[in-house]
Every structure is written in structure tokens, then in C-alpha cells.
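Changelog note: in this version the structure field was regenerated for every chain. One regenerated record is shown below for reference.
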Amino acid sequence: MSTKEKHKEDLLTLEKEDKENQIVLYNDDVNTFDHVINMLIAACEHTPEQAEQCSIIVHYKGKCTVKSGSFDDLKPRCTKLLEAGLSAEII
């Protein structure tokens, strides 16, 4: 394998690793739909429609993946959700 092929393979591996991280938002009995929607727009850059759909999924299914990406990108977003009183984690 040439150096160029090895470098390309390493980049593909890194891209896969970046996509494996996700913020999962969990349902609770405390926060309103409006609060959850506003926080998803602010923290995860969702559109209002996307945020509303995620909040409905969380409500009925108990959890929803709300953002995927690299850990470094997701960490401050998840922290913002947690500071707002939502239940979320990076997996």
C-alpha cells in the first residue's frame, strides 16, 4: 500500500469515527415542548420544524438522537442542553 493510499484510508477512518458520536435527548416530565424546541434550535442549530419533530419523538419514544458529529463539536452543544435542564448525553 502506498503512502497516499494509507493516508486516504486514515482519513476515511477518522470520518467514520467522527460520525459515530451522537447527542441523545431523553424525555422528562419537567420541560415544556417550547423550552425543548427553543434549546434544540439554540444548541443544535435545528430548524423550528426539525426541533418540533425531535421533541415529539422524545415525548412519545422516550429518546431521540438530536445531533451527530465529532465529540469536540458535540460536547459544548450537549453541555448547553444540560445547563438548560434537559436530559441528554453523548454516545
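Spot check on this record: The chain has a mean pLDDT of 90. The helical segments are 3-19, 33-44, 48-61, 71-83.
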